[in-house]
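Whiteboard transcription, Tuesday session. T.W. wrote the structure tokens on the left side:
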């Protein structure tokens, strides 16, 4: 397995790969967990060669966010990738991604980029699209793998690829969860044992919304109230937002009229967590 650091080495390696097969890209911020592993396994199944990028992207963190405290453990990540049969890791220093004085494209995240995660974290999606665009430019992947755990990010990346006609297939991957339903996340490591126990409330809330949708409830206010009640009953959790969006546009809706997704964002004292679930029965709802 190659471990490369520079943009020029990345270009050289992936263009050699493309000459005789397909390149799969799994972008990550490291601190790899079972969610990342499922993306990597999927890439290994589909693509001839798999590249994992490990880069904690400063452009997607706002002032006062957890950039410095974001967990990092490159040696362990390298072992995980080797164990999963990854062909190469790109783990660049910041100046290889953002060379000083070089203006890079900053695709517009549009109005959806200002809602939910974008409202809570101004500029976040501008930073996400900037780094993903740069990664696509340097790597030229045939397929790129992203988790549904970050559904708004996945939506915006899919739209960017369509709008800019970038020749890459985006492969959405199901959310991997712990036994109590908590979505795997690098930030989970920061939770105290007590917070970790209570963090199951995100999935409980989403499951309640799913249960209501399955039973035929179409008014999203009812689902939102149920989710807010569940999280509100959790002593250490503070709601950032709970919502139901139309899956194809990511707009909040009052009534479920097609595929819909429930979203939750919750602050614990040590970490802010997000999760979402496609609502059952909503695909055929009118
Ligand atoms: P991150 O390192 O948090 O930026 O995540 C890198 C990729 O892994 C993103 O596409 C995430 O959506 C995906 N991911 C993170 N957590 C999970 C999870 N629990 N299940 C599936 N994919 C995940």
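and on the right, the sequence the group agreed on:
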């Amino acid at each position: 397995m190659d471990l490369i650091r520079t943009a020029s080495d990345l270009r050289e390696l992936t263009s050699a790969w493309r000459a005789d097969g397909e390149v799969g890209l799994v972008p990550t911020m490291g601190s790899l967990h079972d969610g990342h592993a499922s993306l990597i396994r999927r890439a290994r199944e589909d693509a001839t060669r798999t590249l994992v990028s490990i880069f904690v992207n400063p452009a997607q963190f706002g002032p006062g966010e957890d950039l410095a405290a974001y967990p990092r453990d490159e040696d362990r990540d390298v072992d995980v990738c080797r164990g999963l049969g990854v062909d190469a890791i790109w783990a660049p220093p910041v100046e290889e991604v953002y060379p000083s004085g070089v203006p890079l494209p900053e695709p517009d995240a549009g109005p959806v980029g200002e809602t939910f995660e974008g409202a809570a974290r101004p500029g976040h999606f501008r930073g996400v699209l900037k780094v993903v665009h740069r990664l696509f430019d340097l790597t030229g992947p045939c397929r790129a793998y992203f988790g549904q755990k970050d559904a708004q990010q996945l939506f915006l990346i899919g739209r960017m690829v369509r709008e800019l006609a970038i020749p890459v297939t985006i492969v959405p991957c199901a959310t991997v969860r712990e036994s109590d339903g908590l979505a795997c996340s690098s930030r989970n490591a920061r939770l105290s044992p007590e917070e970790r126990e209570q963090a199951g409330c995100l999935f409980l809330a989403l499951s309640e919304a799913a249960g209501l949708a399955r039973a035929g409830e179409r008014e999203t206010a009812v689902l939102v109230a149920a989710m807010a009640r569940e999280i509100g009953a959790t002593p250490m959790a503070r709601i950032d937002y709970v919502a139901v969006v139309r899956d194809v546009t990511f707009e909040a809706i009052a009534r479920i009229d097609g595929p819909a997704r429930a979203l939750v964002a919750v602050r614990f004292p040590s970490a802010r967590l997000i999760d979402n679930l496609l609502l059952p029965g909503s695909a055929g709802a009118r």
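Someone added at the bottom: The two ends are 50 Å apart (CA to CA).
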